[in-house]
Fold these 2 entries.
Entry 1:
Amino acid sequence: MEAATAIRRKLGAAVPLSSEDLSVLDALLAQRLTVAGGTPLMSERQTERSAYAVLSGWAYRYRVFEDGRRQIARLFLPGDFIGLNAALLGLPEQPITAMTEMQLAKIDGAQLLESLQKRRALWLAFLWSDTRDRLISEERVASIGRRSAYERLAHILVELYHRLELTGNASDDRFTLPLTQDHLADLLGLTSIHINRVLRRLKRDNLISVEGRTIALVSPERLHCVADYDSRYLIHRSVTVPSGNEASSL
Amino acid sequence: MEAATAIRRKLGAAVPLSSEDLSVLDALLAQRLTVAGGTPLMSERQTERSAYAVLSGWAYRYRVFEDGRRQIARLFLPGDFIGLNAALLGLPEQPITAMTEMQLAKIDGAQLLESLQKRRALWLAFLWSDTRDRLISEERVASIGRRSAYERLAHILVELYHRLELTGNASDDRFTLPLTQDHLADLLGLTSIHINRVLRRLKRDNLISVEGRTIALVSPERLHCVADYDSRYLIHRSVTVPSGNEASSL
DNA sequence: CGTACTATTGACGCAGATCAAGTTCCGTGG
DNA sequence: CCACGGAACTTGATCTGCGTCAATAGTACG
């Protein structure tokens, strides 16, 4: 149970969770599974009404066009939820692929619905997570729409570091990046060839260093500056849970 | 009360709402106000814990960079909600500006929280609306990242038509577009000069026609094709509300 | 030791940006 | 009713960031 530290850290950072909230959460996340990198998740089996919480590993959702062009719409990191809203609403989810081996907790839609209705703090925590995902998506629009390739790359690296740090998957300005240059290209609306050149320019300018799959942010300050990284972006002051008793309220 | 047809149509299309649901909804939307075009909404007065429902008119949220580059992250059309999650969570919302004169319903955060907890169908309807907004945002990422200017413009026009049609603000393949070419540029990650040229190419190719602020989709089929418009995008089969009685569930 | 990703590097082309004028369309006031 | 001023829209000339095409290395696993 307590293995779901990524989820607990993320939700707990936004909303103070009581021990009772935590035990309901643990119950939701009880069913574990592991999938290999490359496994398609949620591909068309919308019948299931189930979602996943990411305990470890990375996944991504993408859109493919007729002619093969591809755009990654979203990355799922440890602490993120996959297909939550779709499960709650009973709607189909777009195709999602595991990028690395992943540990997942399978969440039952109906059980989740009940739990959120009973525990207001949990509901707010999930709502916050959802809101944060939207923020990220909208900042990606800003990135692809208005930032240069150099700035885009700087921005995503800083963003990923902050997201991973929150769940304990990064520290000391270093983290493991399982994305290939092709993935980065499809994520940022560029070509892998250009990613390669710009990545190397970031190294030459001494903003980052790369050893294998490990990225080190050599100069976080200059990276933030280059990316015009909004300091308020993804910063979570704790949400206050309005009183009003749990579950009752009729 | 019943003036909030845009909201009722939109939510009702996704989730069947009982007359009781509707009366709770009406109560939420009771407080009306009108703002002039250009009015800033939600700028930093995060203290209020209130949100808006758009009854008529358009607004947009944007991101400005140090050097003046601008990106519109999101458009708000009739039937959309502004700052809902932020109000529920008590978090600050990013700057939003009214583009035209707007009729709004002011929603109290605390009251909303209570209402959603009492009425499961309403909660799901709001959740659905939120999910749809995220879909739109992710499709925008795909658009800016991988579509050409010509395709992007085709896509946004088709998307806006479908969004407006749902609330009764467009029909017969025509609608009023209050956006200037500058707005379109900032929305699609282009320059207004290029928007101008591409718009004219769409007219020359007989895909659209423009009279003043009215856009007519001359050939919706070809537009869908050019844009590689996903037919499932924004289509809402009705959500089924799981049984499980309202409000109780302990 | 091949087969298949993944990364790297160079030459060249183009979609869309930038720069620089206009021009039309209004609303406002004289 | 016309003059003025300021958005919004047009149009052309030129430039450039990034894409495309093509080829070469690593690397990694079976």
Note: Residues 148-149, 190-191, 193-194, 197 of chain A lie near DNA strand D (CB under 10 Å from a C1').
Entry 2:
Amino acid sequence: MLSSELAELAGVTVRTLRHYHQIGLLPEPPRSIGGYRRYDVSDLVRLLRITRSTALGVPLSALPAVLDDPAAVEELLDELDRQAAAEIERLNARRADIAALRSSGSPPDLPPELSVLRSAPEAGVPEEMARYEHEQLVLIGHLLGEGGPAELAALFEGADREMIERLEPLTARFYVLGPDTPEDEVASLIDDWTTGLAPLSERLAGTPEPDPKASALLDELNEQTLTPVQHRVLRRVLRRLEHEQRPAEP
Amino acid sequence: MLSSELAELAGVTVRTLRHYHQIGLLPEPPRSIGGYRRYDVSDLVRLLRITRSTALGVPLSALPAVLDDPAAVEELLDELDRQAAAEIERLNARRADIAALRSSGSPPDLPPELSVLRSAPEAGVPEEMARYEHEQLVLIGHLLGEGGPAELAALFEGADREMIERLEPLTARFYVLGPDTPEDEVASLIDDWTTGLAPLSERLAGTPEPDPKASALLDELNEQTLTPVQHRVLRRVLRRLEHEQRPAEP
DNA sequence: CTTGACTCCGACGCGACGTCGGAGTTTTGA
DNA sequence: TCAAAACTCCGACGTCGCGTCGGAGTCAAG
């Protein structure tokens, strides 16, 4: 038999044969005058034993041991089974993630649960601000850790839709704040927004304190991305919400 | 932030960061006087967007496109989902194989269905012959192709257990044939075996002709491994079975 | 005697990092 | 204040199981 015949019989490529020779898994057969390898049936058997094992997931490095010590295989099979099960788990989780993404219509780099928090595309949010919102959600989504996004989304989903709808135009107004926005417009936005956010703020009060590191990072992002006006407005709104929440603290 | 802080926040290793720098996925941040990288929150966001995508199975090479073209992602997600599903299929098949092996108690390099055909360990088969039997089964198991082993095993399983039990001592006697076995012992083995195999032979007659290439390979294995006496005996038994099967053929 | 199919070998490529070694830097504690 | 500990840098090779390429030689057929 020549390389290609053996390879075809065993359902592998010629390159695979050469690889097995290189790592010493398959003994080098005698050569023809011209240097061609001539295999016989024992090589086929050896090769088949190898392919059957690799099909089970046995690494090539473990094969020398496996092939002539059938006892040592037992634990290996356990291990391989565990590995396969774990891998299946990961892949199933991945598929679930993909499905969630597809049904939520959100971009793939943020948790699908948070897609409720995104501004609607027809809200006319400037691109810069859309990116900001996106980055903020990415950050929040990760900093909340395992299951966090779901909880946060539940807060909003649980709230009455009306409130959300009342908030949307406010954030839209926030996103277009600039140095030439008239002062009374800014002031009214702060008022409206503070009162609009009040019910959410109450709900948030019942949840554990946010990780200070996370807050610091979020604030760093705000400072980097938002215009000075926006940053000032945001801080005032948050401060006033906090005061109303904890009026006792001086 | 230093490398390790960023890495920990994002749940990756420092080496991963360096890798992303190397392939241009993550921009190089400014350095400290001593040359240390100082990251900020925007690097964290960028990194998180990357890790979320890779968790879905997106290859790093596709990320530059994915990160700033959310539209191109759709088909990619389809593809990734298909890949994941296919991989899960393969792993499930592998686990099924492993389970079959463990319940059949056969070594991992031959199809579990064929374990019925193995000699019992207490039959006192010489090691050399046990190896021969094993190799033969490996060969047959593969040459029969998809589903073949199951069919073959069905032939034996369907047969009455008594017949199998009557055959076992005969193969045991066959395996210890040597140059100094008395002639009448050889002759009686041929007789006993031929009649013992007759019912199986009849059943086999109903199945399609064996692949001539496969037969040739099996015969090559016999010739290589069996002693001359054994090879002669085997051929006589097979010839006599064939004659009884097709008495019309001269 | 050419043509085409096949084989040989060496060497690099892939994907996503892990690991090692040696040199420099920053932080911490005595 | 200064040394030890912890951290960071970079380059380069290793992992795993082969795929792919290139150039040279070999074999069967026309």
Note: Residues 80 and 86 of chain B are 10 Å apart (CA to CA).
